[in-house]
Amino acid sequence: MKYSFEDNKLIESDIEKDKIALIGSDFSWSWGDFEKEVNKLLQLLNELNLPKSHPVIIYGHKQAHIIAAKTALMLYGAVYVPADVIFPFERIQMMKEECKAQVLINCTTDNAINELFDCVIQAPSLTCIKQQGTIDFELKNPLEPANKINYILFTSGTTGRPKGVPIARRGIVEFSHWISNDFLINSTDVLLNVSSLSFDFASFDEFLFLRLGATLVSVTSDELKDQTGLIEKISEHKVSVWISTPSLVYLYLRDPRFTEAELPNLHSFVFAGEALPVKTYQELAKRFPSAAIWNAYGPSEATNLTTSVRLNDAIIDKYNAMPIGYPKPNSKIILLNEDEEGVGEICIQGKHLSPGYLNNEELNLAKFISYENERIYLTGDQGYIKDGLIFYAGRNDEMVKFHGYRIELEDISSTLKTFESIENASTIGLKSKGETKKIVTFYMAENELDSNELVAFLRTKLPEYMIPSDFRKIDEMPLNTSGKTDKKKLEAIYLNKA
Predict the structure, then answer these.
(1) Cα(122)–Cα(128) distance, rounded to whole angstroms?
(2) Number of domains in the chain
(3) Which of 310, 335, 361 is where one domain is finished?
């Protein structure tokens, strides 16, 4: 049993139905169980007569029914919109408004969120526990059927509202085909799923699991904090493929048991979401000398990942830098506005690009442009190319990557400005060795405010990973020659007083 992205159906294969498919902290499903749950949900969607292409929000955190729901919605022809429990209700309400979703699949026991929706399907019972009015909205897509939207990811936006990134079927077909062929992973592998439901990198292990008929071991955010427990879990279930941001594996490299001798089945590591430090790669290669270590890169707007490279010491020694890889098949990397050192903005061309942001034509015109008669996406990342290999050289706008999450700093500032006592706010990301290590927000107010109060306020509106590490009151925002807030001066002020 496995899922065919090309034909959009579950197909019989040499994978036995009693083979374990999904393992979590409190569940273990066979492929037969998985098929049964997918078909139950598919039947319910048909009974509800849900319009094709209707967006459906999936709410949860690492439950088995999340992947079953995603699969059922793909089979049905609806659009899934993942919302992790780390998102406050206000943000989910914004997501609902942006994509006009009327239906929720709730994979948790928290029923408070149900009040936001007209129709609620409750897992694990897979019953419709609430339905009012008529569900008649269908997401319109001006492009051809091959580019029909499959899912929408919401990422940080500059206005205080999350921005929706729709991903088309053609993109996920190409993406799933690429990762299942180029990363030396097969149906016998056991994949480690650590990424959040709403993080685009989660689709890497989920799509591999579906396409290959492999086994997926889901790890909750609480389990990630227990290094001893997770290492034992990896050993117990013979996990063979580790997929995460570099920051996570760095934490586990502190544990002397995180070695090939202790975890002999772990043969592959795949990293993306943030820069992979050379030292992290070198230490990992020492611990797991037989393992394949991959570094990959790509934004949500290009269906998760666009480049990859299998690392070795010769590459690192030759370039004295960490590459983010070669472009995947049917895609191109173009550098715009190169400087004298060959550094320019990384732009992506290919049919795997998103159709464009939801309800944001101004941003679409700025980020998706025509170049030499081809549609390209401007990532905002700086990079350079040597011998066909692409290297990352930082950001050129207000977006930072922090613990693998893409964060618009202005999103934090805009949200904090709605706090009653704050007159103005500006947020900076403090970097060390090219990586964002701390997020700090400066604010203008008549009196100094309690940081705990500010944190509590932001937690009602933003995900936990967007909460600043520190707050500083400032009498007046420094301005540069263009009349804009001078972020470099703010950084200097903070470092001088830290």
Answers:
(1) 6
(2) 2
(3) 310
